[in-house]
Structure formats: structure tokens, C-alpha cells
Amino acid sequence: MPAFYILFIILVFLLCSCDSSPYFSKNIGCKSCHNIVLDIHHDFSCSKCHKGNEDSEKINLAHKGLISNPSHPAFMMRYCGNCHKNEVVTAKNSAHFTLKNEISMTWQAFFPEDTNVKDIDTLPFSENPDTEKEVLSEVLRKRCLLCHPYYKGEDYSGTKRGAGCASCHLQNRLLEPNNHRFDNKVSDKHCISCHYGNFIGSDYYGRFEKDFEDDYRDIINGKLAPRDYGVEWHALNPDIHKKAGLSCADCHTGGPCGHKNGMETTITCIECHLTGKQVVESDAKLMDESRKGHRVQDINKVSCAACHAVWSFNDYGRNITHSLFPDYYTWIYLMVQGSSEIERYLKSYPDDIQPLMSDKLNGLYSSGLWFMGFYERRWHPVKIGKDNYSSDINKISVLRPLFDMRITYYNRELKKSFVLKPKRDIWSSYSPHTIGKPDFNRVIEIESMLD
Predict the structure, then answer these.
(1) Tens of pLDDT, residues 298-346
(2) DSSP-assigned states of every residue in 371-417
(3) Hey, where are the domains in the chain?
(4) Model's pTM, two decimal places?
(5) Spatial CA neighbour of 19 closest among 53, 59, 52
């Protein structure tokens, strides 16, 4: 064979080898490999936010120094803050980022004498909990705080989201992996990606989360129904404002991070539905100032939801149990846990592998799974009263048994076991987003409680 043909074959072989290499790209630039759709305001070089090297033909060099998630709270000031400094500063100090309300209230329920733990910055961390406080902190960090902007959400179509700024402003990456369009206005689907389950937000849509047992699963055309939020729900009566077409942002005008005025703002009921001396006589639909609950002196004594909430969340006997080496066959009846991490183990039965669960704040993994179950779940009757958690202690509000719970933890390595129960009242005030016509029996009860 002539030398020319031999050289030609060698050259073709070398070229084919390069093309098939995972470290080689025929074209230059991120978009030559990543088929993404940008919005008009962010249609610029990918490396401006993600860094890396767009001029390299080799993938390993192009990805060197890559920031995969520049909107994450650890990076958002450096990258999102280049153009949106005021918004990022406001967001980082907002209750949605610090979770100060959820953490301080829970901590005070179990340790009322400890006022040092108020938000995520003061929440203790331990890879191997050795005290009651470390155990409660692990429950919060691994099982409860699934909606913090540090976390990208559970692996379900309705809950998967970005982190940091992208939590609210980026489309659902699980449903639209190529969509890189940032939304200026936060839509309800962004809100519900965090405000799902039996918490405020899902009730606005009339959703009451079903229990975890297999008996509650829906069958559609011979197959289990999809679970967009990890757990299915009972379809109840939505809030009257939802029926009228109002979105979350119509009342929560400042956005969750208060981008308009630096504060997380909400339009109160009174701002739309005048009461007391503010009543306009020509508008017959407005409230009667002579009726108890609508009088000027009653505004700070009773919440509107106390009469007008159609239903509320009443989850009794919440049990949260830790297991280093679970007997998966024991838990298979409760496979649906609202946790994609736990569900993966329950589906695969990996008896020879010690399970790991992630800390939703720092992303670190440690041994064991936190299972959850309830004694019973009810949406009626609606309980009213005064609780000792709220800043408005003397205000008549809807109550829910938020802290009717028991936490069980056993550390085999340290040979320590813990059973934690709240030391304060299990009932906490709640503002159900299930507004409708007032309940006659509750109206009578509330009128008797007022002067």
C-alpha cells in the first residue's frame, strides 16, 4: 500500500479520536453545547455570571473555574449583585432567606429558655448530634427547611427550582431544562414551589395534603397518579380571592424580598375591606361598624380569618423518627414521605448501604434518614383562641396544632437516645388562606369573647 494512503488512514483515525473525546468540542462557546433560551435582559455572555472559559475548545478547560449556580446565596452578591445590588441586599436580610420566623418559633417551642437561636445564622450544626439542641437543629436542617433558598427543592416537578435569586425568578428547571429566562414578576407557580404541603399558600388553591399511607394513593387508568409535590392532595374549597383571579403578588406587593421598598409588605384585609369609621355609607357591601368584630375597637382584638376561614390545617401527632440503618420493609407502607431522598431508598431497598441525607442549608451529607408520619390529619373544625407564640398574644385567631410532635433519635455510635417534645403549648396562631363566608357558629363564639 502506498505511503500516501497509510498517512491518510492515520490522519482520519486521529481526527475521529478527537471528535469522540469528551474533552473536545467542535465549536467554541457555551451555546455550542448547551441549548438554552435566555430572556432579553440576560442575553449576554454566559461567562459573565458562570465564569469558565468560553474561548476554549476543550470541555475541561472551558469548565475550569465554572460557577454552576451563580444565583446561590453564597455567590448572588458577587454576580446578581453586579446589576441588582439593592435587591440582593434586601433579599439576603428578608425573612424568606433568614427563616427567622420558622426557626425562632420552633426553637422557642422546644427550648423556651434559649433565645439565642433566631435564624439560620444562629442555628447550630453538628455532623453527629450529641445533645437535644443538636438533634432539633438536624431535624430542621434535614427534614423541615426544604424551602430555603440555599436548597434547589425536592426532585418533584412542582418543587424543583433554582437556589438563591433563581428560587423565585427562574422557570422550573425540571420541567423546562433549557429555559434560562428570568421572570421579573414572581408568579404563583414560583410561590407554590415552596409554599406547598399543609402550609400557607397551598390552602389558597384549596389543597389539603393527603396522608402518607399507601391507602391514600390515587389510581388513574390503572397507574398511580403523578405526585407533582411529592404528596397528593384533597381538593377543597379555594380562597375566595383565588376564585376572583387574584395572585399571591397582588396582596404580597413587595415580593417575598421586599424589592419595592426594602420591606416584605402585604396588603391587609382592611386596606381593601374598610371597617369601623372608615365605612363608606354608599357602599352597602362594606362592613357594618356596629357589628362585633367589625368595630374600630375590635380591629386589634380579632383576626379576619377567625370568622372567615372556611377550613384550616389540623395535623395531629406528627412523629419524626431517625434511623441509621432502616428496615425498609417496615416503612414501605409509608413510602410517600414528601422527601425524594427518602423515597429513593424506599424504592431500592439498599440493605448493604448506609443511607445518607443532605443538610438543606450547607449541602453536606450525613448518615441516617428522618422518617415522618401523623396520627391523623383533619381540615375541620376550625379552632380559634389566643396563643402564646404570636406577637399579638391577645388577638383572637385561628389556631393549628403545629407543635403536636414527637422527635425520636438514637445515636448508636455514641449510645445515646433522645425523645424530644415541645415544652410549650402545641397550638400556634395561623392565618388560613381559605377565606369565604363567615362561619355562623364561630361568629357567635367570637362575639361572646369580645366586650
Answers:
(1) 888 899 999 999 999 999 999 999 998 888 888 989 989 999 999 999 9
(2) EEE-SEEE--SPEEE--SSSS-TTSBEEEE-TT-EEEEEEETTTTEE
(3) 3-68, 99-159+194-237+310-449
(4) 0.85
(5) 59
